[in-house]
Write a structure and sequence with these properties.
The chain is α+β, with helices and mostly antiparallel strands. About 30% of the residues lie in helices and about 25% in strands.
Length: about 425
């Protein structure tokens, strides 16, 4: 699973004071740490024959001589830029302190959020949750949380991640982190309703939706699965590739129950990934050939083929997979591989481009350091990291559609499936 960061939307400031000798020492130590980590973790020889030791010897004196943090960071970013790879970055300490912040507790607000056109918008409300009981609707905009306006923080973080494919994911998770707290705690949230009227509410935080599951040293996660039929089209949605015994079984049951459906929609929007092996088994419900794979993960000293494991009976009808900027990791591997194999039509917006396992650490000088530990190449021969899965049809979610009770991506998926049926 990719290690995701979340943020608390606070004001950011960048000090411009000249560095002290001790600060220069911390910057040099940070440079050494980042340089050695890249050397130790790189899964293949340095790209384009890059002499990494030569880079070290050239740039270390510049870090030591830097008079400001901006200069020191510029040198470290110069080092990283020479890799010409995504998801290696230096994040200033003031921003790292926000993007590295964890949720304040396990309690959840009972609704999902996306940042659409710069605004935090409710995209789904859990049935029976305090939010639902209070009348919160999909399409409502969040103006403030506990009296703190969101607009300024959203703009600042969006600007900091302007060129990153993970910007949408980071923004959404930041809002949710701000909405978190202990179960039973109450938070004050001000919304704009469908008529743009201000609605201040005090909401009780509850346990997140889904069953509890734990993997390795990761925190406890809540995983849910849902399926339904929309007319004669199957719809499958789950929030993580975890709890494999339950989720894989439910996925298989859902596909088998829909063998006579006109088509199947697999909704991976908002799914950040999880256990990569689960995608291989799921793909086997749609691909009968035994020599297919979704792609390959290249790690230091070994490669991992994401081979498809066909089931005795497979579904041969049209498959649509829905994607957005919060779709990452295993979800991207699954949908990207299915697309490359010609077995799925992709609808939505570009995925997060976060297909690689990466780490986020704090350097001695307080800055954040992100680095990847493997490289994923899709079956079509292209990396997904920093690029994402490009949909066959771009369909954006809008506040207007949500307020009207529509899901444009699902509507487009059903229309495409109908076209395939008409061709037969």
């Amino acid at each position: 699973m990719r290690f995701l960061v979340v943020l608390t939307l606070l004001s950011l400031s960048v000090p411009a004071a000249e560095l002290t000798p001790s600060q220069r020492k911390l910057n040099a130590d940070s440079f050494e740490y980042a340089w050695k980590t890249i050397q130790d973790k790189m899964w293949e020889p340095m790209p384009a024959g890059l002499d990494w030791q030569k880079v070290h010897d050239e740039l270390l004196p510049k870090v030591q001589e830097a008079k400001t943090m901006a200069e020191a960071r510029g040198v470290m970013r110069d080092m990283i830029s020479r890799l010409h790879m995504t998801h290696f970055s230096i994040v200033p300490s003031d921003i790292y302190d926000t993007v590295g912040a964890k949720a304040r507790g396990d309690g959840a607000p009972g609704f999902e959020v996306r940042v659409l056109d710069g605004a935090a918008v409710v995209t789904r409300v859990d049935e029976g949750s305090p939010a639902a009981q209070a009348g919160v609707k999909a399409g409502w905009q969040i103006v403030s949380i506990d009296g703190k306006p969101l607009e300024d923080g959203l703009k600042r973080v969006a600007a900091a991640y302007e060129k990153s494919t993970t910007r949408e994911l980071i923004l959404a998770r930041g809002v949710l982190a701000s909405l978190s707290g202990a179960e039973g705690e109450k938070i004050k949230v001000e919304f704009l309703d469908g008529n743009d009227g201000r609605v201040p509410l005090e909401l009780k935080l509850t346990a997140p939706r889904g069953g509890e599951t734990k993997f390795g040293y990761l925190p406890m996660q809540h995983v849910y699965f849902e399926q339904k039929k929309i007319g004669n089209t199957g719809y499958i949605h789950f929030n993580m590739f975890l709890d494999p015994q339950r989720i894989s079984s439910q996925f298989g049951d859902a596909v088998q129950s829909c063998f006579k459906c006109d088509g199947i929609i697999i909704d991976l929007r908002g799914n950040p990934g999880g256990l990569g092996g689960m995608s291989m088994g799921m793909a086997g419900w749609f691909i009968s050939s035994t020599d297919k794979r979704l792609g390959v993960m290249k790690m230091k000293g070994q490669n991992l083929d994401f081979r498809v494991f066909p089931k005795p009976d497979v579904y041969g009808g049209p498959v649509v997979m829905l994607t957005d900027g919060l779709t990452g990791s295993t979800s991207e591997i699954f949908e990207g591989g299915m697309k490359d194999l010609g077995r799925a039509h992709i609808i939505g917006t570009r995925s997060a481009g976060a297909a690689l396992p990466s780490m986020f650490e704090k350097l001695p000088n307080g800055d954040g350091f992100q680095y990847a530990i493997a490289n994923y190449i899709s079956e079509g021969g292209q990396p997904l990291e920093g690029i994402g899965v490009i949909p066959d049809e771009e369909v954006k979610l809008t506040r207007k559609a949500l307020l009207a009770g529509h899901d444009p991506a699902v509507d487009a998926a059903r229309a495409w499936i109908q076209k395939q049926k008409d061709k037969r």
